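Review form for a predicted model. The reviewer records the input and the model, then writes brief findings.
Reviewer: anonymous (R2)
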Amino acid sequence: MSEEDIIKRESIYTCFFSDHHPNLGIRCDPFYKFASNVEQHWRGIRFENARYRETYIHNNTLRVKESISFLTNVDIYFAGVGKDYNVTSAIESIGVPPVISNVRVEYSAFTGINITNPGSIGTIFNSTIKHNAGEKT
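Model under review:
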């Protein structure tokens, strides 16, 4: 499917929104107008509502959720392009995020890391996240 086909398909006239409001503008462009150089990208890693344990920090005065998922000693290159060329983050987490250590995320088509609704603190250490979101070196 060409970029022109995607743009035609995703026009305002083919969006299936049944409730148009005069004060709301809707534009249905693809998330990313991809170039041919992202066709070899892959989706990335996604954590959804991963399991966690509750623990206390700060002299047992603050209860926090601590993930039992770990992403350690991982290199992630050229991620971030999902189904139908929609961009995604190289590492996505919904809910309590994994503990991320010694991870390198580079050259993703979109953001390197996206943490949504964490409900707790996240831990990222000794990691490199650079040259993402289509950034050219």
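Findings: Residues 36-130 form one domain.
Further findings: The chain has two domains: 1-30, 36-130.
Recommendation: see findings above.
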